[in-house]
Amino acid sequence: MQFDIYNPHENQRVTDYYVHIIENALHDAGHMTSRIKSIQRQASNETKGIVVILCIDVVKAKIAGYKHVIVWIQGVSAYESYLIHHNRLRFWGIELFEFIGMRKADLILFCSKKMEEFFDKKYKTYRKDRYIMPCFNEELHEDSFHYPGKYDNNTFIYTGSLAPWQCFEQTVELYSKIEELVGNCNLRVLAKDKETALSVLNKYHVRNYSIDYVPLARVTEETKRAKFGFCIRENTIINNVATPTKLSSYIANGVMPIYSEYLEDFHNRARNSKYCFCYNLDDNADAIQAIVSACREKIMPEDVLKEFSLLFGEYYSASFHKSRLSEKINTIF
Q: Are 157 and 300 contained in the same domain?
């Protein structure tokens, strides 16, 4: 069967890695694929399938006459929209398209077990075929674990926007406490809004820091130099179902993540890891002490590589998910 691939997302570097795994799984299952720039009604659609990444595009695909639809659900879009726009009508509109889209899709890809459970309860998606694959765009880079001085220098990195839900201010507050206890550490901030970042750093009297903004293609190069990476989140449904790509980037480059347990899928895998540090905004004394101890400890790159390979080898493995997804596709189409 022919499957069209429709990915209009402007951040192609993040989404296309995921979509490419789906595309390769289709190839392995004996199907052909082609990339399209728009969803158009054609007579040939009646014998074709399509891969989309938005529920509204499931509806468009069905109107356009496609026989089968695979949809990748990236998050809880209605809640994300409301957080930004505070518009109830918009919220309900997105929920409507989610409901219709997931009911009409033949295969749904979720990013986490929590996301699957959330939509099963909300829209009865347990009636549909599904597959769980976390968001990621890199696999292990062994050379990054051996970057000169990586585990000798206490370099912390923050990548991403300064949007409130990314908890930049709480991150800086945490770092300032670590800096007071350790001294020989520094914070590398990669963010576009330098003025806002600087004001927050000054508010918490951070002494050792650098702020820069680099193209997405250079983020990996910056990340591999760091020892610790921040990904702190609050307890919301948006975070509960999420699998942030920055965590996969940290793991891929030997960066020890400082994360919150509210990122449930990741926490279920990382909770017993010596080199992953769980920090919650409402209970942090033990976590700070664990991070401080890691700053003072002699850490061997081979030990981190071994543990990250075991814990996340299949979780963030393109070949593993391609194989499993191909088997799933074979049972459906």
A: yes
